[in-house]
């Protein structure tokens, strides 16, 4: 089916072909459809003039129907130009169901979000390696930086963050690979296979926005810390380090900002009717709890279908004693996170202060929406803790792997609490924010 796109402004521009989303604004996301556009960039662009004869932009693409309005002047990622492009009567092929563009593009979003997480982990690794190297060369207060305990501690915290980000990213890649390359019928027990597939799909859907948003935030923090590790030199353009910080700052923005992704995670919870929470907790508990703990748990989860996997994959290994406390911290925190998410999704009539919420759905949404960012961070911290412990528990792991897992698990893993929900007060949030605005306005 061919369509003519009448008008749309896009940020991106590819040399070969582009995919654009066309929207009917009055229909919200339901009006968004997915189109394929051949840019025909082989044509030389022709600059067009405005009424006064000044350069206005450049026409590109199929019969000049793509109009490049201007290149953006960006903070970073200048190696990759970003343009405002106007489409005027551009031939395009509708490649999703009409109005179902978001669902059509969702697979691509999973991949681009994974790419974002890869860039985040890579930026962290780069700055951390550079900073560690610099610490062996630079002397301050008559010693190399690497001889100063406080500086070493700073570097070590960066290293733990970097390892955590990498493990989370690789886990999403593993789940995506499993989803894409699945060969049905490998397991003898078909029911069990279906359950495992569903579990992995839920985990992938939950962890994709979380990994993107969390690693991006970590990257900005770690790269900024890394820049500081070079002292004044880190601020100088000729070192290339300011460029790294500028490039990193886009990671929490494109492919969805932190808030937008946190709300995406909330949608996953709703869409799965909280089943994803069961899978999240199962995945962590089955790995680390002894059978005794699992079956004494008050949690009404049926683990039986996972038991074959438990033994088949050799997961019943005993954790080294050094990892028992971290594992316990991660499990306890994961339960709190899941309890909070369940609580806020359940038919609660009152929120915190005892205030009755008449419109239950709206009330629940408000608590969940306002807490979405902290909830996403909590999921991320627990899951990264789980991965670091997992990594440290295999034969061949180093003492430093154990230490990294311990360091990670000692931080506050769960940032939400069902008891603390009275602190989610949208009206007061708004009042606080608007008060600042009022103070900035000149008196009448
Ligand atoms: C260098 C660069 C290149 C880009 N390249 C591309 C590209 O190739 N293709 C493409 O399609 N896009 C591209 N983008 C666009 C990018 O994806 C968007 O800028 C980004 O998703 C944020 O959307 P926005 O700019 O509309 O911000 P807004 O939606 O206006 O967000 C502003 C602020 O409001 C918050 N916010 C918005 N909605 C909510 C909500 N419901 N609840 C809570 N908070 C909210 C956001 O978190 C953010 O902090 C690019 C952007 C940049 C900077």
TrEMBL record:
Acyl-CoA dehydrogenase 11-like C-terminal domain boundaries: 365-433
InterPro entries from the UniProt entry: ACDH-11_C, Acyl-CoA_dehydrogenase-like, AcylCo_DH-like_C, AcylCo_DH/oxidase_C
Highest taxon listed in the record's lineage: Eukaryota
Protein name stated in the entry: Acyl-CoA dehydrogenase/oxidase C-terminal domain-containing protein
Residue ranges constituting the Acyl-CoA dehydrogenase/oxidase C-terminal domain according to the UniProt record: 99-268
A Pfam family this chain is assigned to: ACDH-11_C
GO molecular function list: acyl-CoA dehydrogenase activity
Record keywords, A-Z: Flavoprotein, Signal
Signal sequence segment: 1-31
The organism of origin for this protein: Eptatretus burgeri
């Amino acid at each position: 089916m061919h369509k003519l796109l009448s008008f749309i402004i896009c940020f991106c521009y590819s040399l070969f072909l582009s995919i654009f989303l066309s929207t009917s604004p009055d229909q919200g996301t339901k009006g968004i459809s997915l189109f394929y556009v051949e840019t025909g960039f082989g044509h030389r662009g022709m600059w067009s003039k405005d009424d006064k004869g000044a350069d206005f932009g450049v026409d590109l693409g199929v019969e000049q129907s793509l109009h490049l309005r201007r290149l953006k002047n960006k903070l970073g990622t200048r190696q990759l130009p970003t343009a405002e492009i106007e489409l005027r009567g551009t031939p395009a092929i509708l490649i999703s169901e009409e109005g179902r563009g978001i669902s059509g593009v969702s697979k691509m979003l999973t991949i681009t979000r994974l790419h974002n997480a890869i860039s985040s982990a890579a930026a962290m690794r780069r700055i951390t390696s550079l900073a560690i190297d610099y610490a062996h060369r630079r002397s301050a207060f008559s010693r190399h930086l690497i001889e100063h305990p406080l500086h070493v501690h700073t570097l070590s915290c960066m290293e733990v963050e970097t390892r955590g980000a990498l493990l989370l990213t690789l886990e999403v890649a593993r789940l995506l690979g499993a989803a894409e390359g699945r060969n049905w019928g490998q397991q003898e027990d078909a029911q069990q296979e279906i359950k495992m597939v569903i579990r992995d799909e839920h985990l992938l859907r939950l962890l994709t926005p979380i990994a993107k948003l969390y690693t991006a935030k970590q990257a900005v923090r770690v790269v900024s810390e890394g820049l500081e590790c070079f002292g004044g030199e880190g601020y100088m353009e000729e070192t290339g380090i300011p460029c790294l910080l500028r490039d990193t700052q886009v990671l929490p923005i494109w492919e969805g900002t932190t808030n937008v992704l946190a709300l995406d995670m909330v949608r996953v919870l709703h869409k799965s009717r909280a089943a994803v929470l069961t899978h999240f907790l199962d995945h962590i508990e089955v790995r680390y709890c002894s059978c005794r703990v699992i079956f004494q748990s008050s949690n009404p989860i049926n683990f039986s279908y996972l038991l074959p996997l438990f033994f088949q994959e050799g997961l019943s290994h005993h954790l080294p004693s050094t990892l028992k406390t971290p594992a316990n911290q991660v499990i306890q925190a994961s339960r709190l996170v899941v309890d909070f998410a369940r609580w806020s999704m359940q038919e609660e009539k009152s929120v915190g202060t005892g205030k009755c919420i008449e419109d239950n759905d709206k009330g629940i949404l408000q608590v969940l929406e306002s807490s979405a960012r902290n909830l996403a961070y909590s999921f991320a911290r627990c899951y990264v803790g789980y991965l670091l412990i997992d990594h440290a528990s295999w034969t061949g792991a180093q003492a430093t792997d154990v230490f990294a897992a311990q360091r990670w698990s000692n931080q506050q893993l769960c940032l939400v609490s069902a008891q603390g929900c009275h602190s989610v007060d949208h009206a007061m949030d708004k009042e606080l924010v608007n008060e600042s605005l009022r103070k900035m306005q000149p008196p009448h």
